[in-house]
Amino acid sequence: MSAFADIPFEKYHGTGNDFLVIDAETYVPDRRGLAARECNREAGVGADGVLYLALEDQYSPPRVIMTLVQPDGGTAPMCGNGARVAGQWAMERTGSDEVMIDTQSGTRHASREGDRIAVEMGVPTFQPRGIPATADGPLLETEIAGLEVSVVNTGVPHAVAFVENVPDEFVDTDALEAGVDRLDAVDLDAVAKPVRHADIFPLGTNVVLASPNDQGGFDQRTFERGVEGETDACGTGAVAIAAVARRLGMAESDEPVPISPIGGDLEITFDGERATLIGPVVHEFDGTVKSTHFSFEP
Ligand SMILES: N[C@@H](CCC[C@H](N)C(=O)O)C(=O)O
């Protein structure tokens, strides 16, 4: 018999979007409680979510079933950076340079591309039913809760705003005068929360700010649903920026789109409408956390 068993985890990040990875075979009696406690950056290890990964290495290529539990205790149907982490994790275990990742929003192919991991992300949808959003047609350059956004689902919903359209009341003008970039001067919490919770989105949305940069791509900031705050990167959000930029004629349709979140550099490529997310993954350290429930072992 043991109380509060030790649960092994591995800590990874993809361009700063960080996760505790727990083998799904490990008995975790309270996944919701563990995520709430251990994602907290003061009281716990600190992370943007907990990835439960189940490896099925009898297949070729190997498969991994991915479940993301977010700090609010809920699960998300997809996570682009989490899928890149899942790909790296499964490749480390199997020696394979490609794996299939089963997510709640579909099966995704991941491969090693030099020192980066690429995940095929499917076709972004602008149709309201697929967002989901209560609207008669695609929401493009539409004002929602005081912000002009274009809305797309890239596995999860994203409302994408270009920084020049953020109202001045949300921008720190002193910071601008001191030379801070407009994207960095935005009060993201203040501008994003009303959109994140707007009635038009029955399941809520993530909110992404994009700013054209010198590399022919976009700098990114993201307010994430489930984290309920800003993260250093968001893979589905990066794909959302690229998809919206192509749709609005702000990016070449045949060229890779470089996206730079706070935590590093990502690249989005398209095969027709099908997007692929490419970027680095880092295995940071390993450890154990306590289970949140008293547990009995035989
Ligand atoms: N960080 C993720 C997205 C995770 C899900 C999101 N917070 C949601 O609830 O929709 C990514 O890299 O895509």
Automatic annotation (TrEMBL):
Belongs to the diaminopimelate epimerase family. GO terms for biological process: lysine biosynthetic process via diaminopimelate. Pathway: Amino-acid biosynthesis; L-lysine biosynthesis via DAP pathway; DL-2,6-diaminopimelate from LL-2,6-diaminopimelate: step 1/1. The keyword Ion transport does not apply. NCBIfam families: DapF (TIGR00652). The record marks 158, 224 as: Could be important to modulate the pK values of the two catalytic cysteine residues. One of its GO terms (molecular function) is diaminopimelate epimerase activity. It catalyses: (2S,6S)-2,6-diaminopimelate = meso-2,6-diaminopimelate. It is found in: Cytoplasm. This is Diaminopimelate epimerase. Keywords: Amino-acid biosynthesis, Cytoplasm, Isomerase, Lysine biosynthesis. Homodimer. It is an enzyme of class 5 (isomerase). It holds the Pfam family DAP_epimerase. It comes from the Archaea. Its main location: cytoplasm. Its EC number is 5.1.1.7. The keyword Cell inner membrane does not apply. Substrate binds at residues 17, 70, 80-81, 206, 224-225, 235-236. GO terms for cellular component: cytosol. The active site is at 79 (proton donor), 234 (proton acceptor). Catalyzes the stereoinversion of LL-2,6-diaminopimelate (L,L-DAP) to meso-diaminopimelate (meso-DAP), a precursor of L-lysine. PANTHER family: DIAMINOPIMELATE EPIMERASE, DIAMINOPIMELATE EPIMERASE, CHLOROPLASTIC.
